[in-house]
Amino acid sequence: MIYLTRRATFSASHYYWNPAWSEEKNQQIFGRCANRNGHGHNYTLEVTVAGEPDPVTGFVVDLKWLREVIEREVLEAWDHRHLNLDAPEFAAAIPTTENLAIAAWDRLEPPVTAAGGARLSRVRIYETPEIFAEYRGEA
Amino acid sequence: MIAKSRRACFGRRYLVSASHRLHTDALSTEENRATYGKCNNPHGHGHNYVVEVLVCGAVNPETGMVVDLTALDEVVRARVVERFDHANLNLDPLFANRVPTTENLCRAVFGLLRDALPGGELERVRVEETENNFFECCGE
What is the tally of structural domains in chain A? Predict the structure, then answer.
Protein backbone atom coordinates (compact mmCIF):
# COMPACT_ATOMS: atom_id res chain seq x y z
CA MET A 1 0.00 0.00 0.00
CA ILE A 2 1.34 3.41 -0.95
CA TYR A 3 0.13 6.63 0.67
CA LEU A 4 0.22 9.66 -1.59
CA THR A 5 -0.34 13.19 -0.30
CA ARG A 6 -1.19 16.33 -2.23
CA ARG A 7 -1.00 19.73 -0.56
CA ALA A 8 -3.09 22.80 -1.44
CA THR A 9 -3.51 26.18 0.18
CA PHE A 10 -6.51 28.41 0.58
CA SER A 11 -7.32 31.59 2.43
CA ALA A 12 -10.60 32.11 4.22
CA SER A 13 -12.25 33.97 7.05
CA HIS A 14 -14.39 32.63 9.85
CA TYR A 15 -15.55 33.14 13.41
CA TYR A 16 -16.60 30.76 16.18
CA TRP A 17 -20.10 31.23 17.55
CA ASN A 18 -22.66 28.88 19.04
CA PRO A 19 -26.09 30.53 18.61
CA ALA A 20 -27.48 28.44 21.49
CA TRP A 21 -25.17 30.31 23.90
CA SER A 22 -25.14 33.84 25.27
CA GLU A 23 -22.64 36.36 23.99
CA GLU A 24 -20.77 36.07 27.30
CA LYS A 25 -20.45 32.29 27.02
CA ASN A 26 -19.31 32.52 23.41
CA GLN A 27 -16.65 35.02 24.44
CA GLN A 28 -15.64 32.85 27.38
CA ILE A 29 -15.28 29.63 25.37
CA PHE A 30 -14.00 30.95 22.06
CA GLY A 31 -12.15 34.10 23.11
CA ARG A 32 -10.97 36.24 20.22
CA CYS A 33 -12.24 33.64 17.76
CA ALA A 34 -15.77 34.78 18.67
CA ASN A 35 -15.26 38.34 17.36
CA ARG A 36 -18.30 38.68 15.15
CA ASN A 37 -16.60 40.47 12.30
CA GLY A 38 -14.42 37.43 11.82
CA HIS A 39 -10.76 36.91 11.09
CA GLY A 40 -8.83 34.82 8.60
CA HIS A 41 -6.13 32.27 7.99
CA ASN A 42 -3.94 30.92 5.24
CA TYR A 43 -4.90 27.27 5.49
CA THR A 44 -2.89 24.35 4.17
CA LEU A 45 -4.87 21.28 3.17
CA GLU A 46 -3.14 17.88 2.93
CA VAL A 47 -5.08 15.13 1.17
CA THR A 48 -3.73 11.59 1.51
CA VAL A 49 -4.97 8.73 -0.64
CA ALA A 50 -3.93 5.09 -0.30
CA GLY A 51 -3.67 2.41 -2.94
CA GLU A 52 -1.45 0.16 -5.00
CA PRO A 53 0.52 1.67 -7.90
CA ASP A 54 -1.03 0.91 -11.28
CA PRO A 55 1.20 -1.70 -12.98
CA VAL A 56 1.27 0.27 -16.23
CA THR A 57 1.54 3.90 -15.08
CA GLY A 58 3.17 3.38 -11.68
CA PHE A 59 0.64 5.86 -10.26
CA VAL A 60 -1.60 5.34 -7.23
CA VAL A 61 -3.65 8.19 -8.67
CA ASP A 62 -2.76 10.84 -11.22
CA LEU A 63 -1.62 13.83 -9.15
CA LYS A 64 -3.02 16.24 -11.72
CA TRP A 65 -6.42 14.61 -11.35
CA LEU A 66 -6.17 14.79 -7.56
CA ARG A 67 -5.24 18.47 -7.75
CA GLU A 68 -8.27 19.13 -9.93
CA VAL A 69 -10.56 17.26 -7.52
CA ILE A 70 -9.23 19.29 -4.58
CA GLU A 71 -9.65 22.56 -6.48
CA ARG A 72 -13.15 21.72 -7.68
CA GLU A 73 -14.52 20.19 -4.48
CA VAL A 74 -12.83 22.27 -1.79
CA LEU A 75 -11.01 25.36 -3.03
CA GLU A 76 -13.85 26.62 -5.22
CA ALA A 77 -16.13 26.48 -2.20
CA TRP A 78 -13.76 27.80 0.48
CA ASP A 79 -10.89 29.81 -1.03
CA HIS A 80 -11.28 33.56 -0.45
CA ARG A 81 -14.66 32.95 1.19
CA HIS A 82 -16.18 33.54 4.59
CA LEU A 83 -16.70 30.00 5.86
CA ASN A 84 -19.62 30.83 8.17
CA LEU A 85 -21.48 32.75 5.49
CA ASP A 86 -20.46 31.15 2.20
CA ALA A 87 -20.01 27.43 2.92
CA PRO A 88 -23.30 25.54 3.39
CA GLU A 89 -21.83 22.96 5.78
CA PHE A 90 -21.09 25.71 8.29
CA ALA A 91 -24.58 27.16 8.35
CA ALA A 92 -25.20 24.94 11.38
CA ALA A 93 -21.71 23.84 12.42
CA ILE A 94 -18.84 25.89 13.79
CA PRO A 95 -15.96 26.13 11.28
CA THR A 96 -13.28 24.89 13.66
CA THR A 97 -10.23 23.21 12.20
CA GLU A 98 -11.65 19.83 13.29
CA ASN A 99 -14.92 20.48 11.45
CA LEU A 100 -13.04 21.77 8.40
CA ALA A 101 -11.13 18.49 8.24
CA ILE A 102 -14.38 16.50 8.45
CA ALA A 103 -16.13 18.71 5.88
CA ALA A 104 -13.19 18.49 3.46
CA TRP A 105 -13.31 14.70 3.82
CA ASP A 106 -17.04 14.73 3.05
CA ARG A 107 -16.38 16.77 -0.09
CA LEU A 108 -13.46 14.63 -1.30
CA GLU A 109 -14.43 11.09 -0.36
CA PRO A 110 -17.22 10.56 -2.95
CA PRO A 111 -15.19 11.56 -6.03
CA VAL A 112 -12.07 9.71 -4.85
CA THR A 113 -14.07 6.55 -4.15
CA ALA A 114 -16.03 6.86 -7.41
CA ALA A 115 -12.81 7.05 -9.43
CA GLY A 116 -11.73 3.64 -8.12
CA GLY A 117 -8.14 2.61 -7.57
CA ALA A 118 -7.41 4.49 -4.37
CA ARG A 119 -9.25 5.31 -1.19
CA LEU A 120 -9.16 8.53 0.77
CA SER A 121 -6.99 7.85 3.81
CA ARG A 122 -6.57 11.14 5.65
CA VAL A 123 -7.37 14.82 5.42
CA ARG A 124 -5.25 17.22 7.45
CA ILE A 125 -5.79 20.97 7.63
CA TYR A 126 -3.29 23.43 9.06
CA GLU A 127 -4.88 26.62 10.34
CA THR A 128 -1.45 27.99 11.17
CA PRO A 129 1.91 26.21 10.99
CA GLU A 130 1.43 25.28 14.67
CA ILE A 131 -2.23 24.21 14.67
CA PHE A 132 -3.81 21.44 12.62
CA ALA A 133 -6.62 18.92 12.66
CA GLU A 134 -7.03 15.67 10.82
CA TYR A 135 -9.82 13.24 9.98
CA ARG A 136 -9.49 9.66 8.78
CA GLY A 137 -13.12 8.72 8.28
CA GLU A 138 -15.25 6.57 10.51
CA ALA A 139 -13.84 3.15 11.31
CA MET B 1 -24.03 18.78 7.54
CA ILE B 2 -21.49 17.63 10.09
CA ALA B 3 -22.85 14.58 11.88
CA LYS B 4 -22.51 14.60 15.63
CA SER B 5 -19.66 13.03 17.54
CA ARG B 6 -17.33 12.12 14.73
CA ARG B 7 -13.81 11.30 15.80
CA ALA B 8 -11.11 13.67 14.61
CA CYS B 9 -7.67 14.68 15.79
CA PHE B 10 -6.23 18.02 16.82
CA GLY B 11 -2.53 18.74 16.51
CA ARG B 12 -0.46 21.45 18.12
CA ARG B 13 3.25 22.26 17.91
CA TYR B 14 5.37 23.75 20.69
CA LEU B 15 8.94 24.99 20.74
CA VAL B 16 11.37 23.78 23.41
CA SER B 17 15.01 24.89 23.40
CA ALA B 18 17.18 22.69 25.55
CA SER B 19 20.67 21.29 25.91
CA HIS B 20 21.79 17.73 26.34
CA ARG B 21 24.75 15.41 26.16
CA LEU B 22 24.47 11.82 25.00
CA HIS B 23 26.53 9.76 27.39
CA THR B 24 26.03 6.64 29.47
CA ASP B 25 28.07 5.32 32.35
CA ALA B 26 27.36 1.83 31.03
CA LEU B 27 29.92 2.40 28.28
CA SER B 28 33.61 3.31 28.41
CA THR B 29 34.86 6.71 27.32
CA GLU B 30 35.89 5.24 23.99
CA GLU B 31 32.61 3.40 23.54
CA ASN B 32 30.62 6.55 24.33
CA ARG B 33 32.66 8.42 21.76
CA ALA B 34 32.13 5.70 19.17
CA THR B 35 28.42 5.45 19.86
CA TYR B 36 27.44 9.09 20.18
CA GLY B 37 30.12 10.92 18.22
CA LYS B 38 29.98 14.71 18.63
CA CYS B 39 26.79 14.33 20.67
CA ASN B 40 29.14 13.00 23.39
CA ASN B 41 31.22 16.20 23.58
CA PRO B 42 31.73 16.76 27.32
CA HIS B 43 29.95 20.08 27.75
CA GLY B 44 26.85 19.22 25.76
CA HIS B 45 25.03 21.11 23.05
CA GLY B 46 21.47 22.21 22.35
CA HIS B 47 18.53 22.08 19.96
CA ASN B 48 15.36 23.92 19.16
CA TYR B 49 13.03 20.99 19.62
CA VAL B 50 9.53 21.02 18.20
CA VAL B 51 7.11 18.98 20.27
CA GLU B 52 4.02 18.05 18.29
CA VAL B 53 1.05 16.70 20.24
CA LEU B 54 -1.81 14.84 18.50
CA VAL B 55 -5.04 14.55 20.50
CA CYS B 56 -7.94 12.49 19.17
CA GLY B 57 -11.53 12.12 20.22
CA ALA B 58 -15.13 12.89 19.40
CA VAL B 59 -15.75 16.41 18.13
CA ASN B 60 -17.92 18.16 20.70
CA PRO B 61 -21.00 19.27 18.75
CA GLU B 62 -21.39 22.40 20.90
CA THR B 63 -17.88 23.72 20.32
CA GLY B 64 -16.75 21.92 17.17
CA MET B 65 -13.60 20.97 19.06
CA VAL B 66 -11.85 17.76 20.12
CA VAL B 67 -10.02 19.65 22.84
CA ASP B 68 -9.94 23.28 23.89
CA LEU B 69 -6.77 24.84 22.52
CA THR B 70 -6.25 27.18 25.46
CA ALA B 71 -6.69 24.39 27.99
CA LEU B 72 -4.35 22.11 26.02
CA ASP B 73 -1.76 24.88 25.81
CA GLU B 74 -1.93 25.37 29.56
CA VAL B 75 -1.34 21.66 30.28
CA VAL B 76 1.53 21.33 27.81
CA ARG B 77 3.08 24.57 29.02
CA ALA B 78 2.89 23.56 32.68
CA ARG B 79 3.99 19.93 32.26
CA VAL B 80 6.41 20.01 29.33
CA VAL B 81 7.49 23.47 28.14
CA GLU B 82 8.25 24.93 31.56
CA ARG B 83 10.03 21.74 32.55
CA PHE B 84 12.33 21.40 29.56
CA ASP B 85 12.55 24.79 27.84
CA HIS B 86 15.92 26.48 28.42
CA ALA B 87 16.99 23.59 30.61
CA ASN B 88 19.69 20.93 30.53
CA LEU B 89 17.89 17.65 29.88
CA ASN B 90 20.61 15.59 31.55
CA LEU B 91 19.82 17.26 34.89
CA ASP B 92 16.11 16.43 34.79
CA PRO B 93 15.21 13.54 37.14
CA LEU B 94 13.53 11.77 34.22
CA PHE B 95 16.97 11.39 32.69
CA ALA B 96 18.86 10.51 35.85
CA ASN B 97 19.16 6.90 34.65
CA ARG B 98 18.33 7.36 30.99
CA VAL B 99 20.24 8.99 28.16
CA PRO B 100 18.37 12.10 26.95
CA THR B 101 18.15 10.99 23.35
CA THR B 102 15.21 12.39 21.48
CA GLU B 103 13.69 8.89 21.53
CA ASN B 104 13.67 9.03 25.32
CA LEU B 105 12.53 12.65 25.37
CA CYS B 106 9.62 11.73 23.12
CA ARG B 107 8.58 8.90 25.43
CA ALA B 108 8.99 11.14 28.49
CA VAL B 109 6.72 13.80 26.98
CA PHE B 110 4.12 11.17 26.17
CA GLY B 111 4.18 9.99 29.78
CA LEU B 112 3.90 13.52 31.17
CA LEU B 113 0.85 14.30 29.04
CA ARG B 114 -1.04 11.01 28.69
CA ASP B 115 -3.19 11.31 31.81
CA ALA B 116 -3.23 15.11 32.03
CA LEU B 117 -5.08 16.19 28.90
CA PRO B 118 -8.15 18.44 29.30
CA GLY B 119 -10.02 16.39 26.67
CA GLY B 120 -9.56 13.70 24.06
CA GLU B 121 -6.87 11.02 24.12
CA LEU B 122 -3.18 11.44 23.44
CA GLU B 123 -2.57 9.52 20.24
CA ARG B 124 0.96 10.52 19.36
CA VAL B 125 3.85 12.73 20.38
CA ARG B 126 6.38 13.76 17.80
CA VAL B 127 9.62 15.47 18.76
CA GLU B 128 11.63 17.08 16.00
CA GLU B 129 15.24 17.49 17.07
CA THR B 130 16.31 19.29 13.91
CA GLU B 131 14.63 19.94 10.58
CA ASN B 132 16.02 16.62 9.38
CA ASN B 133 15.15 14.20 12.14
CA PHE B 134 12.16 13.49 14.30
CA PHE B 135 10.84 10.80 16.61
CA GLU B 136 7.32 9.63 17.35
CA CYS B 137 5.81 7.82 20.30
CA CYS B 138 2.30 6.40 20.48
CA GLY B 139 2.48 5.00 24.01
CA GLU B 140 3.42 1.39 24.60
Answer: 1
